[in-house]
Amino acid sequence: QVQLVESGGGLVQAGGSLRLSCAASGRTFSSYGMNWFRQAPGKEREFVAAIRWSGGSTFYADSVKGRFTISGDNAKNTVYLQMNSLKPEDTAVYYCNARHGDIHYWGQGTQVTVSS
Predict the structure, then answer these.
(1) What is the pLDDT of residue 29?
(2) pLDDT (mean) for 95-109
(3) What tens digit of pLDDT does each residue of 37-96 get?
(4) What is the CA radius of gyration of the chain?
(5) What is the CA angle 72-111-13, rounded to 5?
(6) DSSP assignments along the chain, one per residue
(7) Of 25, 39, 18, 32, nearest to 81 (Cα)?
(8) Quick count: other Cβ atoms within 10 Å of Cβ 26?
(9) Exposed, middle or buried by CB within 10 Å (0-12, 13-18, 19+), for 97?
(10) Which of 1, 87, 96, 113 could form a disulfide with 22 if both were Cys (CB 3.0 to 4.6 A apart)?
């Protein structure tokens, strides 16, 4: 059974930092792209960042470039999202996603709240 389990969310003041983790289990994810998405209240889910296990390429939404860093530990099947210089508009539920073609797996999400 495939599981993606996020952790590390919480309440932080504007300008602060958080590190999210996504522990993946249940299969080999080496051919998958690992992604972070977020969904704020009343808004659609949006892409935040991605990493490819093969080659380690990373991609970011313009809104988080320069502030967020995605990384992965292949041996632990874990993906991280380091979030610095957080803003109130970063407040959302953050979801981990594993994708291979049309196959998607999602975590349950972790709440990030940034106070002004």
Answers:
(1) 83
(2) 95
(3) 999 999 999 999 999 987 789 999 999 999 999 999 988 999 999 999 999 999 999 999
(4) 13
(5) 95
(6) --EEEEE--EEEETT--EEEEEEEESS--TTSEEEEEEE-TTS--EEEEEEETTT--EEE-TTTTTTEEEEEEGGGTEEEEEE-S--GGG-EEEEEEEEETTEEEE---EEEEEE-
(7) 18
(8) 12
(9) buried
(10) 96
Dihedrals φ, ψ of 76, to 5°? -100, 0
Cα first-last separation, the chain: 40
Residue given tokens 């602060």 in the structure block: 16
pLDDT for res 88: 97
pLDDT given for residue 54 in this prediction: 79
The single-letter code of the amino acid at 103 is I
